[in-house]
Structures are given as structure tokens and as C-alpha cells.
Design brief:
This protein is mainly beta. The protein is 4% helix and 48% strand.
Length: 297
């Protein structure tokens, strides 16, 4: 069984002057944890999130806020403001476009943005958007969890999932806590607020601890009450080619998606309220994009 810690790398969201985010997934040798294929941690910050319409294919976007508020618009006609403790879930299928803007009056903003890869059986389907303001909560001695994706500790999120998966925000009190896991899943644990000890090893704030298949529990030791986020699922067994905002299986599919976006094809529709402004696709690299490969130490 292989466990490892992934340190975040800082990435500007939407250009060099964009919101700075800490990215832990994908990383070299670990493209996925279950079907989770992307994780950005942003804030706390008073810097605004101003992300013009942009496309996605082959994935679900999972938006989880800890502070602040963000307005989501998409080509499906959705116009939803998300608050902390609520879930925005957009399933791209064959193609969708959306924008995200933080609310001026919401104060400091803090949250996580995930992508979940769609399996072959769903990635060519229609796009959908779901918003959930009421999610199941697990109450245990010394900790509680809000389940935003999949199943955890006997509670199941109402959000659509297309592979065996888990996503939960866990708030632990000060002290040592053993939390049961699904041994058929691999997991990732993010230290959101501060450093904590995970299975006896220090996990720095904003870092991600990968826990391999077979673990029946995880032990978290926190100095004070704090928040961690748990993701996981059955190991992903399909090829994934990821570039910009697209998740596909081949270089040709990426080329086609980019071409359709640049041409204004109705595959991605139009997001109202932005006067036709969009984020243009960057140029493709001068190489053939290949599926990401898992190489654990």
C-alpha cells in the first residue's frame, strides 16, 4: 500500500493577474484519486474571482465554498449564487460553458474547486447543472461531516455521481480521531485551515495526503477544532487526456473541442450577461497529448 503527500503549487486562475490558487491534483505520477482529477484551493482572500465564460468537456465541476459567495452562470440558463455549505455541481458531458464571479459584498472568499472525470458511459451526454443548499450531515463523537458527493459514514449526497465516489467536509475537534473509510476506495485528505497529523505524520496546511486502497480508517490529530476535506473513490481505470478545461481520451478529441470553442459552435452555447466576452483557448502545445500515467513511488 502506497501513501504519499502532495505539496500544492501556486497557479494564477485566468491569467497572470488572476486569482492565485493552490493546486494539488493532478500531479506528476498521480493524475486521479478515484474519479477526482483536479483540485484547486483558493483563499482566504479579498481578491475577486472574475472568470469569464469558458468551456468544459468530459467532467463534472464541483464547487465548495468555506467563505464568501460566487455567482455561477452557464449556457443552460442557470444563474445561481452559491454560499458556504452549499454545492454547485455542473456535469459537462459533451460540452458546456459557464462563468464564475465573486460577490462584491461577500467579504473574504475561501473554497475548493474540484473536477470529477466522467466515465465513458456519461461523457458524451447532455450537460446539466445542480445546486444543493441542504446536504446530509454526519454527527459523530468529536467530529462532524457534510457529505457533498457520494456516500460517507452512512449518509448519501443527493448530487449526481456516475462512479463510486466520496466527497465530504469534516470538522474535527481538538484531539485524536479515528474515522472509518471504505477500503475499496483510494482517498485524498486536504488540510484546509491548518496543519494536522494524519496517521502519525504531519500534513501541512493546504497539502493533500493520498491514502491508497485497503485503508479501513484514517487517524486525524488536530491541535484545535479545524476543517479537512476528504475525497476518494474506486481507482480510475479509463485513459484521461487533460488539457486546459477539457477532459478527453485522445489528442484528437481535445483538438476538436478547442476548435469548436474558438468557432463559437453551439456545442458550448452562450452564457448570458457578459456581452459576448469569453476566455479564448490557448494554443495547443506542439506535441501529441497523451493519457496521464499513474506512477506511485
Amino acid at each position: 500500500m502506497t501513501d504519499m503527500t502532495i505539496e500544492p503549487r501556486t497557479v494564477p486562475l485566468g491569467g497572470l493577474r488572476g486569482l492565485q490558487v493552490d493546486r494539488t491534483l493532478p500531479t506528476k505520477g498521480l493524475p486521479t484519486i478515484g474519479a477526482w482529477c483536479f483540485l484547486d484551493h483558493f483563499g482566504p482572500t479579498f481578491q475577486s474571482m472574475d472568470v469569464l465564460p469558458h468551456p468544459h468537456t468530459g467532467l463534472q465541476t464541483v464547487t465548495w465554498l468555506l467563505a464568501g459567495g460566487v455567482e455561477h452562470r452557464d449556457n443552460l440558463g442557470s444563474n445561481v449564487t452559491i454560499q458556504p455549505g452549499e454545492l454547485n455541481l455542473m456535469t459537462a458531458g459533451n460540452g458546456v460553458s459557464h462563468s464564475e464571479f465573486s460577490l462584491d459584498a461577500s467579504g473574504s472568499m475561501h473554497g475548493l474547486q474540484f473536477w470529477v472525470a466522467l466515465p465513458e458511459s456519461r461523457r458524451h451526454g447532455e450537460a446539466t447543472f445542480e445546486h444543493f443548499a441542504d446536504l446530509p450531515v454526519v454527527h459523530e463523537q468529536g467530529w462532524e461531516a457534510t457529505v457533498f458527493m457520494g456516500e460517507f459514514a452512512g449518509q448519501t449526497s443527493p448530487a449526481s455521481a456516475f462512479s463510486p465516489i466520496v466527497g465530504a467536509q469534516i470538522v474535527v475537534n481538538a484531539g485524536r480521531h479515528e474515522i472509518r473509510l471504505n477500503p475499496e476506495f483510494e482517498h485524498g485528505l486536504v488540510a484546509v485551515d491548518m496543519s494536522v497529523d494524519v496517521n502519525g505524520e504531519r500534513l501541512a496546511q493546504r497539502s493533500l495526503r493520498f491514502i491508497d486502497v485497503g485503508a479501513e480508517s484514517v487517524v486525524i490529530d488536530a491541535p484545535v477544532r479545524t476543517t479537512v476535506v476528504l475525497i476518494g473513490g474506486e481507482p480510475w481505470d479509463e485513459p484521461l487526456v487533460m488539457w486546459w478545461n477539457f477532459v478527453a481520451r485522445t489528442h484528437a478529441e481535445i483538438e476538436e473541442a478547442r476548435s469548436d470553442w474558438e468557432a463559437g459552435d453551439q456545442r458550448f452555447g452562450t452564457v448570458d450577461g457578459h456581452g459576448g466576452k469569453v476566455i479564448p483557448a490557448p494554443p495547443l502545445p506542439p506535441v501529441i497529448l497523451k493519457p496521464r500515467v499513474r506512477r506511485l513511488p
